[in-house]
From TrEMBL:
<dbReference type="InterPro" id="IPR042095">
    <property type="entry name" value="SUMF_sf"/>
</dbReference>
<feature type="domain" description="Sulfatase-modifying factor enzyme-like">
    <location>
        <begin position="34"/>
        <end position="249"/>
    </location>
</feature>
<protein>
    <submittedName>
        <fullName>Formylglycine-generating enzyme family protein</fullName>
    </submittedName>
</protein>
<dbReference type="Pfam" id="PF03781">
    <property type="entry name" value="FGE-sulfatase"/>
</dbReference>
<dbReference type="InterPro" id="IPR016187">
    <property type="entry name" value="CTDL_fold"/>
</dbReference>
<dbReference type="InterPro" id="IPR051043">
    <property type="entry name" value="Sulfatase_Mod_Factor_Kinase"/>
</dbReference>
<dbReference type="GO" id="GO:0120147">
    <property type="term" value="F:formylglycine-generating oxidase activity"/>
</dbReference>
<dbReference type="InterPro" id="IPR005532">
    <property type="entry name" value="SUMF_dom"/>
</dbReference>
Amino acid sequence: MKKECLGMQEEGGRFRKEREVCEKKKLTNSIGMEFLKIPAGEFKMGSNGCDFEKPIHTVKIPKPFYLGKYTVTQKQWKAVMGNNPSDFKDDDRPVGQVSWNDVQEFVRKLNEMEGTDEYRLPSEAEWEYGCRAGTTTRYLFGDDASDLDDYAWWDKNSGCTTHPVGQKKPNPWGLYDVHGNVWEWCQDEWHDDYTGAPDDGSSWEDGSSSDRIIRGGGLGVEAWYCRSAFRYYFQPDGRGSPVGFRLLRKI
C-alpha cells in the first residue's frame, strides 16, 4: 500500500512538472485563445473496449504543435463569426450546436484575421495524444471512473447543461475538459476501425464515409463514452447541441 501511494505521489509530481513546461510555452492569440505546446512523441492509440477502437496501434507525432488549452468559447466564436448558435448562452461556456462545416468556416476566418494559415482542427490521433498526455489508462486520471467528477461535466453532474470551460481539473499537459462538457470535432472522416490508419498523426480522410469524428464525450453521456479512446461520428452538417471543438495551431 505504501508503495502504491508513493507511486501516485511520484506520478503526480511528474505530471505537475510536465504541465508547468507546457504552460511556460503557451501562446495567446488576438481574441484570447490560449494554446499549450504539445511535445512530439509517440503513443498507443485505441483500445480493446470496442471494435471500432481496434486495433491498438503505435502513432508517432513527429513535430510539436499548439493545442487549445480550452474548447473554443462562445465569446471567441462571436468574435470571429458574429453570432452565437449555442443553446446554453454564456460567453465563458464552450460554443455548441456548430457543425463540422461551420468549424471549417471559423478556421478560415480566424486564419484570415490572424494573417496566417496555421489554425486547423486536430486530427483524431493528435486529439487522443493530447488528451492522454502520456497516460495509458481508460481516463486521463486512471481506470476507475469514480474520479470522473473531478475532471469532467457528464451525465451525473452536468445538470443537462454545458458549463464554463476550465472549472474541472486539467490533464497532465494542462488541457481542460478533454472529458465531457461538449463533444469535440476532429478533422478525420469516420472509419469503422483503425485498420489502415495513418501512423504519423495525420488526419485520415480517404474513406467512403461523409461522417466526421467527434471525441471526448459530452454533458449527457455515461462515463464509458468519456474514455480517452472512445470515438464516434456525426454528419458534417449536423449541429448537435453538445458538440464543439478545440483548435490546433501549427508551429
